């Protein structure tokens, strides 16, 4: 599952080199070779191009790094002086002249150099931090900010311009270097298993990693609980930097010895040298939040070397070599054989280690694998009935929440008064849309048994609920072409009634007319359809047509009167419909239009037809019948 060697580059081994450096900002290995004239080469994994130039050898090079835009190079020969070279000049003059900058405090010793921006560099000294602006055209360096603090060592995370310095036995102090300033964050103390043999926290025991849109300080600890095991404490940093980093997780290793750590793909990968194994931790699994702070490995595996890397060497390529040096997030270099490479992971191979299919799906989803691959595996699990209904409901909620999250307003740091932004590397879930679920899960083959179709109907209903709970608009195709037809076909009319009654299924004209077409199977669908059209507020004529078609012309007129919309419908249509009914209805409807006077004629397109109906109206009842009806009405009201 874990692979090493793709991609990779090779360089001259350590015996032929005078020095080898790692440029963390540009993620390059820089080699230095030679005596009077030294040859410098920079190798990166993203490109086969090798930057190469020569320098006069003043003395032993202590550090060398490129600016982010590769236009400037800083070289440290002296413990308190840094030389700057222009890369443009190097292309024409192999022994280019340079300009220099010494530390602000003459007695300070430079511990490290970090390019913050293309023209900003940070000197980390044993006495504090010094931020400089470099102008290659003028060959000048200007001090922007400084901060006095005694420190032992530091770690730098370029993505957030975050610096962690060790300023005590177990005391760590974060800084953010942004906008030409140095911002000190809340310092914190860690428990690391202090002893006579280890009096203070060491640089190799601390790591900065980015997992699930959050930054963590990982601390490798020995003998905290017993003498036969180690663990890793993960301290989560607040993104505004105003809170002390809090202990979020403890990764239980259950081993002792030499460890190294990588944080990539939202995983914490811990390599153990003596056992030649790697432990995989995923703090994003739902079981983790339930288990509390202590977390055990999801599984254990071993690195495998790619054939392309193995073929570069005539001898055996040793895995978990003691000569390996590891860098974040997933880089490895071995100067003894001249290799710079990375660790990669194939998440789908975790199926061999994770038996629970629900947990396996969550693991894949957290890795942001290609959508098509994830959907194929999901379909296999669903068709084979490998997931419980409640588990699949959770899966649908992952998808719905991820879509809903896209519509949330993004925070604007400029309006919040925060002078800096502490960012983790961005992580976004796989974007599984409604169309993806419908096309991959809900288009049921004709040869499915009734039991299979009923099982998938349960899945459809759970997906509908997930969409509604996350306030997402349900696509008409899923409702009108998939869900409702399947419910009707399988005789789930009572359940459909409940879903419509409680508005779980949203209103639409298309759905309303579909319900009407199944009136013969379940008569209450008519009223549900009418209620739906009424709520939409844009279907007045359609409602009138439905009522007329069902010989409910009086109800149609009452409906129009309630909306004060009688004038908007052709009155002739109502009169013609009434004339298909008994004399009482004819009389009542036509009387209604006569009482409205001239408006009646205006809402009837052909006034000649109105006159014809008027003649018919006048002979509906004779005078005796009318007088008798009036007397009955009078006595009914006075009795």
UniProtKB/TrEMBL annotation:
InterPro entries: RMC1 (IPR040371), RMC1_C (IPR009755), RMC1_N (IPR049040), WD40/YVTN_repeat-like_dom_sf (IPR015943). GO terms for biological process: regulation of autophagy. Transmembrane segments: none annotated. GO terms for cellular component: late endosome membrane; lysosomal membrane; Mon1-Ccz1 complex. Residues 20-141 form the Regulator of MON1-CCZ1 complex N-terminal domain. Pfam families: RMC1_C, RMC1_N. Residues 370-602 form the Mic1 domain. This is Mic1 domain-containing protein.
């Amino acid at each position: 599952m874990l692979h090493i060697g793709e991609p990779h580059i090779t360089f001259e081994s350590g015996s032929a080199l005078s020095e080898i450096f790692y440029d963390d900002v540009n993620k390059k290995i820089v080699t230095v070779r030679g005596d009077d004239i030294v040859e410098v080469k920079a190798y990166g994994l993203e490109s086969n191009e090798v930057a190469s130039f020569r320098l006069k050898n003043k003395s032993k090079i202590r550090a060398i790094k490129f600016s982010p835009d590769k236009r400037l190079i800083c070289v440290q020969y002296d413990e308190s002086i840094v030389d700057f070279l222009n890369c443009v000049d190097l292309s024409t003059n192999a022994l280019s002249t340079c300009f220099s900058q010494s530390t602000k405090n003459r007695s300070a010793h430079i511990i490290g150099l970090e390019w913050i921006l293309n023209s900003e560099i940070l000197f980390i000294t044993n006495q504090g931090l010094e931020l400089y602006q470099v102008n290659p055209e003028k060959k000048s360096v200007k001090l922007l900010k400084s901060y006095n603090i005694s420190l032992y060592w530091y770690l730098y995370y370029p993505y957030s311009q975050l610096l962690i310095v060790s300023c005590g036995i177990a005391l760590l102090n974060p800084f953010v270097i942004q906008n030409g300033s140095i911002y000190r964050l809340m310092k914190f103390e860690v428990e690391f298993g202090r002893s006579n043999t280890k009096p203070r926290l060491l640089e190799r025991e601390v790591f900065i990693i980015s997992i699930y849109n959050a930054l963590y300080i990982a601390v490798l600890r020995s003998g905290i609980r017993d003498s036969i095991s180690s663990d890793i404490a993960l301290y989560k940093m607040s993104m505004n930097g105003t809170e002390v980093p809090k202990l979020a997780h403890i990764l239980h290793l259950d081993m002792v010895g030499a460890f190294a750590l990588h944080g990539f793909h939202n995983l914490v990968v811990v390599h153990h040298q003596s056992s030649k194994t790697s432990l995989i931790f995923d703090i994003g699994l739902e079981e983790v939040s339930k288990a509390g702070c202590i977390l055990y490995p999801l599984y254990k595996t071993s690195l495998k070397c790619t054939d392309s890397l193995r073929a570069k060497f005539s001898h055996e390529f040793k895995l978990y070599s003691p000569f390996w040096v590891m860098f974040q997030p997933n880089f490895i270099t071995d100067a003894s054989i001249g290799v710079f490479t990375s660790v990669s992971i194939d998440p789908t191979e975790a199926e061999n280690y994770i038996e629970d299919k629900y947990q396996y799906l969550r693991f894949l989803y957290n890795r942001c694998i290609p959508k098509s691959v994830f959907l194929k595996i999901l379909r296999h699990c669903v068709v084979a009935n490998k997931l419980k209904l409640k588990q699949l409901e959770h899966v649908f909620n992952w998808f719905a929440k991820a879509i809903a999250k896209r519509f949330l307003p993004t925070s604007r740091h400029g309006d919040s008064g925060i002078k800096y932004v502490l960012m983790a590397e961005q992580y976004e879930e796989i974007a599984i849309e409604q169309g993806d679920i419908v096309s991959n899960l809900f288009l049921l083959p004709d040869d499915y048994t009734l039991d299979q179709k009923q099982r998938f109907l349960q899945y459809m209903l759970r997906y509908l609920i997930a969409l509604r709970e996350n306030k997402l608009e349900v696509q008409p195709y899923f409702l009108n072409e998939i869900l409702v037809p399947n419910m009707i076909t399988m005789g789930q009319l009572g359940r459909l009634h409940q879903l419509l009654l409680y508005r779980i299924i949203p209103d639409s004209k298309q759905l309303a007319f579909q319900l009407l077409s199944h009136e013969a199977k379940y008569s209450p669908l008519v009223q549900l359809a009418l209620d739906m059209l009424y709520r939409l507020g844009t279907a007045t004529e359609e409602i009138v047509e439905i009522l007329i078609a069902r010989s409910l012309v009086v109800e149609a007129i009452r409906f129009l009167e309630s909306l004060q919309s009688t004038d908007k419908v052709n009155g002739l249509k109502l009169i013609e419909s009434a004339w298909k009914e008994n004399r009482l209805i004819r009389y009542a409807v036509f009387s209604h239009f006569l009482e409205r006077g001239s408006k009646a004629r205006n809402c009837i397109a052909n006034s000649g037809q109105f006159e014809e109906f008027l003649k018919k109206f006048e002979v509906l009842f004779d005078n005796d019948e009318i007088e008798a009806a009036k007397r009955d009405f009078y006595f009914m009201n006075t009795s």
